[in-house]
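Slide 14.
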Amino acid sequence: MSRPPVIVRTLPALRRALDILRTRNASLALVPTMGALHDGHVSLVRQAKRRAGKVAVSIFVNPAQFAPNEDFAAYPRTWKADLARLTEEKVDLIWNPDAKTMYPAGFASKILTEGPALAGLEDRFRPHFFGGVTTVVGKLFAQVRPDLALFGEKDFQQLRVVARMARDLDLGVKVMGVQIVRERDGLAMSSRNRYLSPEHRASAPALYRALKEAAKRIRAGDKLAPALAEGAASITAAGFKLDYLEARHAETLAPIAARKDGPIRLLVAATIGTTRLIDNVAV
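Slide 15: predicted structure.
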């Protein structure tokens, strides 16, 4: 039976635990999560174990990245199952603070970034979001002091925002993206997939199919606009309300007009039923 990870919920306990983990100058990787762990999170943990001597996972449902009309209260919290998965993966430490620890009375600071955070993608539909992400991730980096932090590529704009923040603020953390883990039918794994009704779950893989087909057409030499227009039409026909389907520079997320302006990443966000899904593919 695997030894359970050290679980800490206060900053003094975290500091003591980190001092012990680093006694032999072991490198430390952090996998930040909001819990409700799935195979995509496990992929991050396994990549972390390959690249660092010790692995810490944070579990904190961050209220600062939810708007008033979003699902903070309903966001899935599956502590027992999460602990079992992380124990099986032989994680060294779980940092599980509460909101009062992360945002104590009088908390009045925020990390705001530009660049990829103002790309006109998720920020256009969730203008509050990246301020909440960068603030909590900046705090996690300061608290845990990892050498490496791993994020899934499904939240591609978030990955670019966090990487830019870490570089710009000289935080000493290497931010690494890990390939999207998908269900057998192509749907990107997400904690929010459990909100899908059976009917909407059956339709959801249309999002990935449209991305793949658009990327295939662009690689074959088609112009961006018609390839994206056909992809958007297929997504709408599958029952989604489309927020965006765009081709962006894979590093800066700046808009591009032609394949020569690449490398290209296609990014999509759309809602089916009450569930909003995002995905992306490289071209």
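Speaker note: The beta strands are 6-8, 28-33, 54-59, 93-95, 148-152, 174-178, 241-249, 264-272, 275-282.
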